[in-house]
Amino acid sequence: MDKIIRITLTLFVFILVWYLVVITLRIPTYILPDPITIFKSLTVNRLAIFTNSIITLKESFLGFFIANIISVTIALGIVFNKNIENTIMPFAITLKTIPIIAITPLLVVWFGPGEYSKIATAALICFFPSLVNVLRGVKSLDRDLVNFFKAYSANKIQLIKMLIIPSILPYLFAALKISSSLAVVGALVGEFIGANKGLGFLIISNYYTLNTPYVFSSIIISSLIGILFYYAIHFVEKRVVTWTATID
């Protein structure tokens, strides 16, 4: 409760200072609108913002889901075949070094201007951080326990279900929390290029018309989606990973 009060007070002071600075310095709305103007814009455009928020949320979640499924699959494969790591990691590292804003136009060309290219962008930006965290969990496995299970003729499904998944869960949830906010960023970047819907589209289109209050409204909602996404995963983690400290 004390933490919530501190956060609320900090936010209140920040908004108050923001308002006073804008009013005192008479900063034009197209440069920096005051919080009240932003709230009015959010209210007036609430239907459009809500509709486009659903689109961005969908793209973010699907990209997040695909990236983490692929990451976990690769990590589990590495447990049984070390050569997979030697094959995949150079490719993953190379992919990570390419700025997401540079490759997004190619994704639009390959997947089209619709939601698939935005999902691909979200998945791409999530993939490497997720893979690295899950691999940390895989490499932390007690090899003696793995050999013990194998000695008692445990098959791969039993090994994954009874040993590997419980052991890597803290690392998996760390990967999920990191990639949750990245997924929203990826979807927004994808919507900046060749989209006609989504919060990213609202941000970029209103930027060009200098409708800055609308831009701020869309940014705030985008941030809230990322925050809610993160804390939803954190909520599940607290109820699933009860036997050890979480990994941040």
Mean pLDDT: 88
**Beta-strand content:** under 5%
Question: Please, what is the oligomeric state?
Answer: single chain
Note the main sheet: none
CATH architecture of the largest domain: Orthogonal Bundle
Low-pLDDT windows of residues:
none
Query: In terms of structural class, how would the helical and strand content be classed?
Result: mainly alpha
How many helices in DSSP terms?
A: 10
CATH class of the largest domain: Mainly Alpha
Q: Measure the end-to-end span.
A: 22 Å
CATH topology title of the largest domain? MetI-like fold
Global Rg: 22 Å
Net shape: elongated
Order of helices and strands: HHHHHHHHHH
Percent helix, as a range, is over 70%
Q: What is the number of beta strands?
A: 0
Q: What's the CATH superfamily of the largest domain, by name?
A: MetI-like
- Whole-number count of domains: 2
Task: Describe this entry's structure for a reader.
The protein is an all-alpha fold and 248 residues long. It folds into two domains: 1-32; 34-240, MetI-like fold, CATH 1.10.3720.10. 83% of the residues lie in helices and 0% in strands. It has helices spanning 2-25, 35-44, 46-80, 83-97, 100-111, 115-139, 143-151, 156-192, 199-208, 212-240. Helix 3 packs antiparallel against helix 4 (83-97) and helix 3 packs parallel to helix 6 (115-139). 31% of the residues are buried. The mean pLDDT is 88.
